[in-house]
Amino acid sequence: MPRNPWSDGPEFVTQCPIPAGTNFTQEINFSTEEGTLWWHAHSDWSRATVHGAIIVYPAHGTSYPYPKPYGEQTIVLASWFKADVMEVYQEAVASGAEFNTSDALTINGQPGALFDCSTGTTFRLPVKKGETYLLRIINAILNEEMFFGIAQHSLTVVGSDGFYTKPINTNYIMITPGQTMDVLVTANQPASYYYMAASPFSDSEAPFDNTTTTAILQYIGNQSAPSPIPLPTLPSTNDTTAASNFTTKFRSLASSDHPISVPKNITKHILMTVSVNLIFCPNDSCSGTSDGDRLAASLNNQSFVFPTTDILETYTRSNFSESTTDFLLEPPIYFNFTGDVNLIVYTRQGTKVIELEYGDVVELVYQGTIIGNAQNHPMHLHGFSFYLVGTGLGNFNNQTDPDNYNLIDPPEINTIQLPKNGWAAIRFVADNPGVFSISQSFGYLCV
Protein backbone atom coordinates (compact mmCIF):
# COMPACT_ATOMS: atom_id res chain seq x y z
CA MET A 1 0.00 0.00 0.00
CA PRO A 2 2.69 2.54 -0.94
CA ARG A 3 1.83 6.17 -0.13
CA ASN A 4 -1.70 5.14 0.86
CA PRO A 5 -1.98 4.83 4.65
CA TRP A 6 -5.51 6.24 4.69
CA SER A 7 -7.02 2.96 3.52
CA ASP A 8 -5.01 0.57 5.68
CA GLY A 9 -8.02 -0.02 7.88
CA PRO A 10 -7.14 -0.73 11.56
CA GLU A 11 -9.56 1.23 13.69
CA PHE A 12 -8.14 4.27 15.48
CA VAL A 13 -4.82 3.82 13.70
CA THR A 14 -5.29 4.86 10.08
CA GLN A 15 -8.95 5.81 10.35
CA CYS A 16 -11.87 5.84 12.75
CA PRO A 17 -14.29 2.90 12.60
CA ILE A 18 -16.86 3.04 9.79
CA PRO A 19 -20.19 3.87 11.50
CA ALA A 20 -23.08 1.45 11.15
CA GLY A 21 -25.33 2.26 8.21
CA THR A 22 -22.58 4.09 6.28
CA ASN A 23 -19.97 3.00 3.74
CA PHE A 24 -16.34 3.63 2.96
CA THR A 25 -14.47 2.78 -0.24
CA GLN A 26 -11.00 1.41 0.37
CA GLU A 27 -8.35 2.30 -2.23
CA ILE A 28 -5.84 -0.49 -2.71
CA ASN A 29 -2.44 0.28 -4.25
CA PHE A 30 -0.16 -2.67 -4.93
CA SER A 31 3.58 -2.49 -5.51
CA THR A 32 5.53 -5.71 -6.11
CA GLU A 33 3.02 -8.30 -4.89
CA GLU A 34 2.08 -11.17 -7.19
CA GLY A 35 0.00 -14.11 -6.06
CA THR A 36 -2.59 -14.44 -3.31
CA LEU A 37 -3.43 -11.83 -0.68
CA TRP A 38 -6.60 -11.15 1.26
CA TRP A 39 -8.66 -8.32 2.70
CA HIS A 40 -10.55 -8.29 5.99
CA ALA A 41 -12.37 -5.98 8.34
CA HIS A 42 -10.19 -4.67 11.14
CA SER A 43 -12.58 -3.66 13.91
CA ASP A 44 -12.77 -5.99 16.89
CA TRP A 45 -13.70 -9.47 15.59
CA SER A 46 -15.58 -8.34 12.50
CA ARG A 47 -12.87 -9.96 10.36
CA ALA A 48 -14.35 -13.34 11.32
CA THR A 49 -17.13 -12.81 8.77
CA VAL A 50 -16.00 -9.84 6.65
CA HIS A 51 -13.09 -11.04 4.54
CA GLY A 52 -12.16 -12.24 1.07
CA ALA A 53 -9.38 -13.01 -1.38
CA ILE A 54 -7.25 -10.65 -3.46
CA ILE A 55 -5.53 -12.28 -6.44
CA VAL A 56 -2.73 -10.55 -8.32
CA TYR A 57 -1.95 -12.28 -11.62
CA PRO A 58 1.34 -12.02 -13.55
CA ALA A 59 1.59 -8.87 -15.66
CA HIS A 60 0.66 -9.11 -19.34
CA GLY A 61 3.54 -10.61 -21.29
CA THR A 62 4.85 -12.53 -18.29
CA SER A 63 3.88 -15.83 -16.69
CA TYR A 64 4.18 -17.82 -13.51
CA PRO A 65 7.71 -19.01 -12.61
CA TYR A 66 6.31 -22.55 -12.93
CA PRO A 67 4.17 -24.27 -15.59
CA LYS A 68 0.80 -22.58 -15.83
CA PRO A 69 -1.76 -24.62 -13.88
CA TYR A 70 -4.77 -26.12 -15.62
CA GLY A 71 -7.10 -24.49 -13.09
CA GLU A 72 -7.16 -22.73 -9.75
CA GLN A 73 -9.31 -22.54 -6.64
CA THR A 74 -9.33 -20.20 -3.66
CA ILE A 75 -9.49 -22.07 -0.35
CA VAL A 76 -10.51 -19.94 2.66
CA LEU A 77 -10.13 -21.40 6.16
CA ALA A 78 -12.37 -19.63 8.66
CA SER A 79 -14.05 -19.82 12.09
CA TRP A 80 -17.71 -20.61 12.76
CA PHE A 81 -19.60 -19.79 15.94
CA LYS A 82 -23.02 -20.79 17.26
CA ALA A 83 -23.26 -17.24 18.53
CA ASP A 84 -22.98 -13.64 17.47
CA VAL A 85 -19.23 -13.19 16.99
CA MET A 86 -19.25 -9.63 18.30
CA GLU A 87 -21.08 -10.73 21.46
CA VAL A 88 -18.38 -13.37 22.03
CA TYR A 89 -15.73 -10.67 21.65
CA GLN A 90 -17.49 -8.14 23.88
CA GLU A 91 -18.08 -10.72 26.61
CA ALA A 92 -14.36 -11.54 26.76
CA VAL A 93 -13.36 -7.87 26.77
CA ALA A 94 -15.82 -7.13 29.57
CA SER A 95 -14.65 -10.04 31.73
CA GLY A 96 -10.92 -9.89 30.96
CA ALA A 97 -10.91 -13.66 30.45
CA GLU A 98 -10.01 -15.96 27.56
CA PHE A 99 -12.18 -15.72 24.46
CA ASN A 100 -14.67 -18.54 23.88
CA THR A 101 -13.41 -20.81 21.13
CA SER A 102 -15.25 -21.27 17.85
CA ASP A 103 -17.66 -24.20 17.46
CA ALA A 104 -16.23 -25.30 14.13
CA LEU A 105 -13.67 -24.43 11.49
CA THR A 106 -14.63 -24.20 7.83
CA ILE A 107 -13.30 -24.62 4.30
CA ASN A 108 -15.04 -22.18 1.96
CA GLY A 109 -17.88 -21.70 4.41
CA GLN A 110 -18.57 -25.36 5.24
CA PRO A 111 -17.44 -27.30 8.35
CA GLY A 112 -17.30 -30.50 6.31
CA ALA A 113 -18.55 -34.05 6.46
CA LEU A 114 -17.35 -34.66 10.04
CA PHE A 115 -20.20 -32.39 11.19
CA ASP A 116 -23.84 -33.49 10.88
CA CYS A 117 -24.92 -29.96 10.01
CA SER A 118 -22.80 -30.14 6.85
CA THR A 119 -24.32 -33.27 5.30
CA GLY A 120 -24.61 -32.72 1.57
CA THR A 121 -23.08 -29.27 1.66
CA THR A 122 -19.37 -30.05 2.06
CA PHE A 123 -17.31 -27.99 -0.37
CA ARG A 124 -16.16 -30.00 -3.42
CA LEU A 125 -13.36 -29.26 -5.85
CA PRO A 126 -13.79 -31.11 -9.18
CA VAL A 127 -10.48 -32.00 -10.86
CA LYS A 128 -9.48 -33.60 -14.15
CA LYS A 129 -7.15 -36.56 -13.88
CA GLY A 130 -3.58 -35.72 -14.87
CA GLU A 131 -3.95 -31.94 -14.52
CA THR A 132 -2.27 -29.58 -12.04
CA TYR A 133 -4.26 -27.05 -10.02
CA LEU A 134 -3.23 -23.97 -8.08
CA LEU A 135 -4.82 -23.72 -4.63
CA ARG A 136 -4.81 -20.21 -3.19
CA ILE A 137 -5.07 -20.96 0.53
CA ILE A 138 -5.99 -18.22 3.02
CA ASN A 139 -6.10 -18.66 6.80
CA ALA A 140 -8.86 -16.29 7.91
CA ILE A 141 -9.40 -18.20 11.17
CA LEU A 142 -9.41 -15.94 14.21
CA ASN A 143 -6.91 -17.76 16.41
CA GLU A 144 -5.87 -21.22 15.27
CA GLU A 145 -2.79 -22.07 13.25
CA MET A 146 -3.64 -24.91 10.89
CA PHE A 147 -2.20 -28.01 9.30
CA PHE A 148 -3.69 -28.68 5.84
CA GLY A 149 -3.33 -31.61 3.44
CA ILE A 150 -5.06 -33.71 0.78
CA ALA A 151 -5.34 -37.47 1.13
CA GLN A 152 -2.82 -39.39 -1.02
CA HIS A 153 -1.70 -36.22 -2.85
CA SER A 154 1.56 -34.30 -2.59
CA LEU A 155 1.60 -30.50 -2.37
CA THR A 156 4.10 -28.00 -3.75
CA VAL A 157 4.20 -24.56 -2.12
CA VAL A 158 5.23 -21.89 -4.65
CA GLY A 159 4.26 -18.63 -2.96
CA SER A 160 3.21 -16.91 0.25
CA ASP A 161 1.76 -13.50 1.10
CA GLY A 162 1.93 -12.29 -2.51
CA PHE A 163 5.53 -13.33 -3.23
CA TYR A 164 6.99 -16.38 -4.97
CA THR A 165 9.05 -18.91 -3.07
CA LYS A 166 11.40 -21.68 -4.06
CA PRO A 167 9.19 -24.79 -4.45
CA ILE A 168 8.55 -26.73 -1.24
CA ASN A 169 7.43 -30.33 -1.81
CA THR A 170 5.44 -31.54 1.15
CA ASN A 171 2.56 -33.71 2.34
CA TYR A 172 1.11 -30.93 4.52
CA ILE A 173 1.37 -27.21 5.13
CA MET A 174 1.18 -25.23 8.36
CA ILE A 175 -0.49 -21.87 7.85
CA THR A 176 -1.02 -19.23 10.54
CA PRO A 177 -3.90 -16.73 10.82
CA GLY A 178 -3.31 -13.93 8.32
CA GLN A 179 -1.08 -15.96 6.02
CA THR A 180 -1.75 -16.94 2.43
CA MET A 181 -0.04 -19.71 0.47
CA ASP A 182 -0.05 -20.67 -3.20
CA VAL A 183 0.03 -24.45 -3.47
CA LEU A 184 0.16 -26.73 -6.53
CA VAL A 185 -1.49 -30.15 -6.52
CA THR A 186 -1.55 -32.64 -9.40
CA ALA A 187 -4.53 -34.97 -9.83
CA ASN A 188 -2.34 -38.04 -10.37
CA GLN A 189 -4.12 -40.62 -8.24
CA PRO A 190 -6.81 -43.13 -9.22
CA ALA A 191 -10.00 -41.28 -10.12
CA SER A 192 -12.02 -41.13 -6.90
CA TYR A 193 -12.94 -38.91 -3.97
CA TYR A 194 -10.30 -37.63 -1.52
CA TYR A 195 -10.69 -35.46 1.55
CA MET A 196 -8.93 -32.15 1.93
CA ALA A 197 -8.65 -31.49 5.65
CA ALA A 198 -7.39 -28.84 8.05
CA SER A 199 -6.78 -29.35 11.76
CA PRO A 200 -5.29 -26.97 14.34
CA PHE A 201 -1.77 -26.72 15.70
CA SER A 202 -1.48 -25.58 19.32
CA ASP A 203 1.51 -25.83 21.65
CA SER A 204 0.08 -24.02 24.67
CA GLU A 205 -2.37 -24.65 27.48
CA ALA A 206 -4.82 -22.04 26.16
CA PRO A 207 -8.17 -23.36 24.92
CA PHE A 208 -8.53 -23.76 21.16
CA ASP A 209 -10.98 -25.18 18.63
CA ASN A 210 -9.75 -28.76 18.34
CA THR A 211 -11.93 -29.77 15.40
CA THR A 212 -11.13 -30.85 11.85
CA THR A 213 -12.74 -29.26 8.81
CA THR A 214 -12.95 -31.13 5.52
CA ALA A 215 -13.70 -30.64 1.83
CA ILE A 216 -13.64 -33.09 -1.06
CA LEU A 217 -11.25 -33.30 -4.00
CA GLN A 218 -13.43 -35.11 -6.54
CA TYR A 219 -12.13 -36.46 -9.84
CA ILE A 220 -14.43 -35.69 -12.76
CA GLY A 221 -16.21 -38.85 -13.95
CA ASN A 222 -18.92 -41.31 -13.04
CA GLN A 223 -17.15 -43.05 -10.17
CA SER A 224 -19.00 -43.35 -6.88
CA ALA A 225 -17.57 -42.20 -3.57
CA PRO A 226 -15.56 -44.85 -1.71
CA SER A 227 -16.55 -45.76 1.82
CA PRO A 228 -14.84 -44.37 3.68
CA ILE A 229 -13.42 -41.46 1.69
CA PRO A 230 -9.69 -41.35 2.60
CA LEU A 231 -8.52 -38.62 4.95
CA PRO A 232 -5.03 -37.08 4.84
CA THR A 233 -2.63 -37.96 7.64
CA LEU A 234 -1.91 -34.63 9.34
CA PRO A 235 0.48 -33.98 12.24
CA SER A 236 -0.99 -34.10 15.72
CA THR A 237 -2.22 -30.84 17.20
CA ASN A 238 0.87 -30.39 19.41
CA ASP A 239 3.51 -31.60 16.93
CA THR A 240 5.98 -28.72 17.20
CA THR A 241 8.58 -30.61 15.18
CA ALA A 242 6.23 -30.95 12.21
CA ALA A 243 5.31 -27.27 12.45
CA SER A 244 8.95 -26.15 12.61
CA ASN A 245 10.10 -28.53 9.88
CA PHE A 246 7.65 -26.90 7.49
CA THR A 247 7.96 -23.23 8.43
CA THR A 248 11.76 -23.23 8.26
CA LYS A 249 11.77 -24.36 4.61
CA PHE A 250 10.67 -21.04 3.13
CA ARG A 251 13.07 -19.25 0.79
CA SER A 252 12.47 -16.43 -1.68
CA LEU A 253 12.60 -17.36 -5.35
CA ALA A 254 15.30 -14.66 -5.75
CA SER A 255 15.52 -15.06 -9.52
CA SER A 256 16.39 -12.55 -12.24
CA ASP A 257 12.68 -12.13 -13.00
CA HIS A 258 11.74 -11.97 -9.32
CA PRO A 259 14.71 -10.37 -7.55
CA ILE A 260 14.90 -9.46 -3.88
CA SER A 261 16.79 -6.77 -2.02
CA VAL A 262 17.60 -7.77 1.55
CA PRO A 263 18.41 -4.76 3.78
CA LYS A 264 21.99 -4.94 5.05
CA ASN A 265 23.08 -1.69 6.72
CA ILE A 266 20.76 -1.47 9.72
CA THR A 267 20.10 2.01 11.14
CA LYS A 268 17.38 1.11 13.67
CA HIS A 269 17.41 -1.94 15.95
CA ILE A 270 14.25 -2.98 17.81
CA LEU A 271 13.96 -5.89 20.25
CA MET A 272 10.30 -6.51 21.06
CA THR A 273 9.10 -8.99 23.68
CA VAL A 274 5.74 -10.67 23.02
CA SER A 275 3.78 -11.68 26.12
CA VAL A 276 0.40 -12.22 27.69
CA ASN A 277 0.40 -10.09 30.82
CA LEU A 278 -2.12 -8.95 33.41
CA ILE A 279 -3.97 -5.71 34.07
CA PHE A 280 -5.02 -5.05 37.65
CA CYS A 281 -8.77 -4.91 38.21
CA PRO A 282 -10.05 -3.04 41.29
CA ASN A 283 -11.88 -5.21 43.80
CA ASP A 284 -10.85 -8.36 41.91
CA SER A 285 -13.65 -7.58 39.47
CA CYS A 286 -12.32 -9.43 36.39
CA SER A 287 -12.23 -13.14 35.60
CA GLY A 288 -9.02 -13.41 33.60
CA THR A 289 -7.24 -15.04 36.55
CA SER A 290 -8.19 -16.61 39.87
CA ASP A 291 -7.02 -13.36 41.51
CA GLY A 292 -9.62 -11.32 39.64
CA ASP A 293 -7.30 -9.62 37.14
CA ARG A 294 -7.56 -9.12 33.39
CA LEU A 295 -5.50 -10.81 30.66
CA ALA A 296 -3.74 -8.45 28.25
CA ALA A 297 -1.35 -9.05 25.36
CA SER A 298 1.68 -6.80 25.28
CA LEU A 299 4.72 -5.76 23.26
CA ASN A 300 7.67 -4.67 25.40
CA ASN A 301 5.29 -4.75 28.35
CA GLN A 302 3.02 -2.17 26.71
CA SER A 303 -0.66 -2.84 25.98
CA PHE A 304 -2.54 -0.57 23.60
CA VAL A 305 -5.31 1.81 24.64
CA PHE A 306 -7.65 2.94 21.87
CA PRO A 307 -7.68 6.72 21.41
CA THR A 308 -10.84 8.62 20.46
CA THR A 309 -9.26 9.97 17.24
CA ASP A 310 -7.17 7.81 14.95
CA ILE A 311 -3.41 8.18 15.29
CA LEU A 312 -2.78 9.04 11.64
CA GLU A 313 -5.17 11.98 11.82
CA THR A 314 -3.64 13.35 14.99
CA TYR A 315 -0.17 12.89 13.50
CA THR A 316 -1.03 14.88 10.36
CA ARG A 317 -2.31 17.64 12.65
CA SER A 318 1.09 17.55 14.41
CA ASN A 319 -0.35 17.21 17.87
CA PHE A 320 -0.32 13.49 18.79
CA SER A 321 -3.03 14.52 21.23
CA GLU A 322 -3.65 11.12 22.78
CA SER A 323 -0.46 9.24 21.92
CA THR A 324 3.21 9.58 22.73
CA THR A 325 6.32 8.68 20.75
CA ASP A 326 8.12 6.86 23.56
CA PHE A 327 7.27 3.26 22.69
CA LEU A 328 10.34 1.38 23.95
CA LEU A 329 12.78 -0.03 21.38
CA GLU A 330 13.79 -2.75 23.84
CA PRO A 331 12.24 -4.52 26.84
CA PRO A 332 11.92 -2.36 29.98
CA ILE A 333 13.68 -5.13 31.94
CA TYR A 334 15.90 -8.00 30.82
CA PHE A 335 15.51 -11.48 32.28
CA ASN A 336 15.68 -15.05 31.07
CA PHE A 337 12.76 -14.52 28.65
CA THR A 338 12.25 -18.20 27.88
CA GLY A 339 13.71 -19.79 31.02
CA ASP A 340 12.20 -21.33 34.11
CA VAL A 341 11.20 -18.11 35.85
CA ASN A 342 8.19 -17.41 38.01
CA LEU A 343 7.11 -13.92 37.05
CA ILE A 344 3.77 -12.19 37.40
CA VAL A 345 4.04 -9.09 35.28
CA TYR A 346 1.43 -6.37 35.03
CA THR A 347 1.61 -4.57 31.72
CA ARG A 348 1.56 -0.84 31.22
CA GLN A 349 -1.25 0.72 29.22
CA GLY A 350 -1.13 3.61 26.81
CA THR A 351 -1.25 4.83 23.23
CA LYS A 352 2.38 4.89 22.14
CA VAL A 353 4.16 4.83 18.80
CA ILE A 354 7.68 4.24 17.49
CA GLU A 355 8.87 7.02 15.21
CA LEU A 356 11.10 6.09 12.26
CA GLU A 357 12.88 8.38 9.87
CA TYR A 358 12.06 7.96 6.20
CA GLY A 359 14.67 5.57 4.80
CA ASP A 360 15.52 3.93 8.11
CA VAL A 361 16.74 0.36 7.62
CA VAL A 362 15.02 -1.55 10.41
CA GLU A 363 15.77 -4.85 12.08
CA LEU A 364 12.94 -5.89 14.37
CA VAL A 365 13.47 -8.98 16.54
CA TYR A 366 10.35 -10.48 18.10
CA GLN A 367 11.20 -12.28 21.34
CA GLY A 368 8.67 -14.70 22.77
CA THR A 369 8.51 -14.94 26.55
CA ILE A 370 7.44 -17.46 29.16
CA ILE A 371 5.16 -14.88 30.77
CA GLY A 372 1.50 -15.84 30.67
CA ASN A 373 0.66 -18.64 28.29
CA ALA A 374 3.62 -19.05 25.93
CA GLN A 375 2.72 -20.33 22.49
CA ASN A 376 3.60 -20.27 18.81
CA HIS A 377 1.99 -17.06 17.61
CA PRO A 378 1.44 -15.13 14.37
CA MET A 379 3.00 -11.68 14.03
CA HIS A 380 2.06 -9.23 11.30
CA LEU A 381 3.21 -5.81 10.14
CA HIS A 382 1.03 -3.40 8.20
CA GLY A 383 2.36 -1.04 5.54
CA PHE A 384 5.38 -3.13 4.62
CA SER A 385 6.36 -6.52 3.40
CA PHE A 386 9.52 -7.67 5.13
CA TYR A 387 12.22 -10.31 5.02
CA LEU A 388 12.32 -13.04 7.67
CA VAL A 389 16.09 -13.30 8.05
CA GLY A 390 16.32 -15.53 11.10
CA THR A 391 14.46 -17.52 13.71
CA GLY A 392 15.43 -19.68 16.64
CA LEU A 393 14.56 -21.04 20.07
CA GLY A 394 15.51 -19.54 23.41
CA ASN A 395 16.69 -15.99 24.02
CA PHE A 396 17.95 -13.96 21.08
CA ASN A 397 21.71 -13.33 21.27
CA ASN A 398 22.63 -10.21 19.33
CA GLN A 399 26.28 -11.26 19.25
CA THR A 400 25.99 -14.76 17.80
CA ASP A 401 22.53 -15.27 16.28
CA PRO A 402 22.98 -12.76 13.41
CA ASP A 403 25.88 -14.92 12.17
CA ASN A 404 23.28 -17.51 11.15
CA TYR A 405 20.91 -15.11 9.36
CA ASN A 406 19.83 -15.94 5.83
CA LEU A 407 20.67 -12.80 3.85
CA ILE A 408 20.76 -14.62 0.49
CA ASP A 409 17.18 -15.74 -0.13
CA PRO A 410 15.04 -15.10 2.98
CA PRO A 411 11.26 -15.21 2.39
CA GLU A 412 9.59 -11.87 1.67
CA ILE A 413 6.25 -11.98 3.49
CA ASN A 414 3.96 -9.96 5.77
CA THR A 415 3.05 -12.52 8.45
CA ILE A 416 5.32 -14.86 10.41
CA GLN A 417 5.01 -17.55 13.05
CA LEU A 418 6.90 -16.61 16.19
CA PRO A 419 7.97 -19.94 17.75
CA LYS A 420 7.01 -20.70 21.33
CA ASN A 421 9.83 -19.59 23.64
CA GLY A 422 11.80 -18.41 20.65
CA TRP A 423 12.56 -15.42 18.46
CA ALA A 424 12.20 -14.22 14.88
CA ALA A 425 14.14 -11.42 13.14
CA ILE A 426 12.68 -9.37 10.28
CA ARG A 427 14.12 -6.55 8.18
CA PHE A 428 12.51 -3.82 6.11
CA VAL A 429 13.17 -0.32 4.80
CA ALA A 430 10.91 2.40 6.22
CA ASP A 431 9.95 3.95 2.88
CA ASN A 432 6.16 4.08 3.19
CA PRO A 433 5.09 7.16 5.20
CA GLY A 434 2.16 6.62 7.51
CA VAL A 435 1.13 5.00 10.77
CA PHE A 436 1.06 1.20 10.70
CA SER A 437 0.31 -1.48 13.26
CA ILE A 438 2.44 -4.34 14.52
CA SER A 439 -0.14 -6.97 15.37
CA GLN A 440 0.10 -9.13 18.49
CA SER A 441 -1.56 -6.81 20.89
CA PHE A 442 -1.10 -3.38 19.38
CA GLY A 443 2.14 -1.59 18.69
CA TYR A 444 2.50 1.12 16.08
CA LEU A 445 5.23 2.32 13.79
CA CYS A 446 5.12 5.87 12.50
CA VAL A 447 7.24 6.71 9.45
UniProtKB/TrEMBL annotation:
Glycoprotein in keyword set: yes
GO molecular function, one term: copper ion binding
GO cellular component, one term: apoplast
Domain Plastocyanin-like: residue ranges: 2-59, 72-221, 332-436
Cofactor: Cu cation
E.C. number(s) listed in UniProt: 1.10.3.2
InterPro entries cross-referenced by the UniProt entry: Cu-oxidase-like_N, Cu-oxidase_2nd, Cu-oxidase_C, Cu-oxidase_fam, Cupredoxin, CuRO_2_LCC, Laccase
Cofactor: how and how many bound: Binds 4 Cu cations per monomer.
Reaction(s) catalysed (UniProt annotation): 4 hydroquinone + O2 = 4 benzosemiquinone + 2 H2O
GO BP annotations, alphabetical order: lignin catabolic process
Record's keyword terms, sorted: Apoplast, Copper, Glycoprotein, Lignin degradation, Metal-binding, Oxidoreductase, Repeat, Secreted
Localization, UniProt: Secreted, Extracellular space, Apoplast
NCBIfam families: laccase
Described purpose of this protein according to its UniProt entry: Lignin degradation and detoxification of lignin-derived products.
Homology family: Belongs to the multicopper oxidase family.
Entry protein name: Laccase
Species of the source: Acer negundo (Box elder)
